[in-house]
Design goal:
With 140 residues, the protein is mostly helical. 51% of the residues lie in helices and 11% in strands. It has 6 helices and 4 strands; from the N terminus they run H-H-H-H-E-E-H-H-E-E. The longest helix is centred in the middle third of the chain and has 19 residues. It is extended, with a radius of gyration of 21 Å. The protein starts with 6 loop residues before the first helix and ends in a 6-residue tail after the last strand.
């Protein structure tokens, strides 16, 4: 089994944090919280770097609200700086784990997702049925 070293130092590198900011802010450049963070980008990233390096980083409390569309759901949102850290983590661990995930693992993976999982499931159902009708011993 391959081992990896210096992953934590890679996590808090300014290069990784900057890439993480770019991913976290994608399609959100006009949101107030992104504009505020970006207006002091160098300082904000340096603060995150220092907190991670000194092991003093603590995520902010989640912001909670209710959405009714049409069913009622409780939504929890991380602070933007925490989303930057989330992407920084993904930048480091995704290349490691992506290689060992099974093909039919779809959650939170590039070019996968719920729609592709449903399509794959439908393909399996069609494989064991004739014209959508279940043949003996299949899915009920």
């Amino acid at each position: 089994m391959k081992t990896f070293s210096n992953l934590y130092q890679k996590l808090y590198s300014l290069e990784n944090l900057n890439r993480a900011f770019e991913k976290a802010s994608k399609n959100k450049k006009h949101k107030k919280y992104v504009v505020e963070f970006e207006s002091n980008l160098e300082k904000e990233l340096f603060i995150l770097k220092e907190e991670l390096e000194n092991l003093s980083y603590k995520p902010k409390p989640l912001r909670k609200f209710i959405v009714r569309d049409p069913k009622t759901r409780k939504i929890h949102i991380s602070a933007f700086r925490d989303r930057v850290i989330h992407h920084a983590l993904i930048n480091i661990i995704e290349p490691i784990f992506e290689k060992i995930f099974i093909y039919d693992s779809y959650a939170s993976r590039i070019n996968k997702g719920t729609l592709n999982a449903v399509k794959r499931f439908d393909a399996f159902v069609k494989k064991i049925s004739r014209n959508g009708k279940i043949c003996g011993g299949g899915v009920t």
